[in-house]
Design brief:
With 88 residues, the protein is α+β, with helices and mostly antiparallel strands. The protein has one domain. It is built from four helices and three strands; from the N terminus they run βααββαα. A three-stranded antiparallel sheet has the order 1-3-2. A hairpin with a 2-residue loop joins β2 and β3. The longest helix has 11 residues. The radius of gyration is 17 Å and the shape is elongated.
């Protein structure tokens, strides 16, 4: 799934920038998983504010979170198996 992130400026103020450590506290995955998700365009890419400093905009992370399904595919599959009388 390709996420197109439209950069929006908050009216009357600067957008909040998050470091990698802050992003990993919000998104419960490891660093390698986050890198894979970015490579697959399943997660917003960072913005470089200097040659060695990258940040993510908080509003882009929040928008990404809202695109996630309410229920995981695994849970749906497990329920289907249980309905058929087989153990998950």
């Amino acid at each position: 799934m390709v996420l197109e992130m439209v950069e929006e400026e908050k009216e009357g103020g600067a957008r909040r920038m998050l470091t990698l450590e802050q992003v990993l506290k919000l998104v419960p995955v490891g660093h390698s998983t986050l890198k894979r998700m970015m490579a697959r365009e399943q997660f917003p890419r960072p913005h470089y504010i200097s040659p060695n400093k990258r940040v993510w905009y908080e509003d882009q992370i929040e928008r990404w979170q809202r695109t996630l399904p309410a229920e995981s595919v695994r849970k749906k599959q497990e329920r289907r198996r249980n309905k058929g009388g087989r153990l998950a």
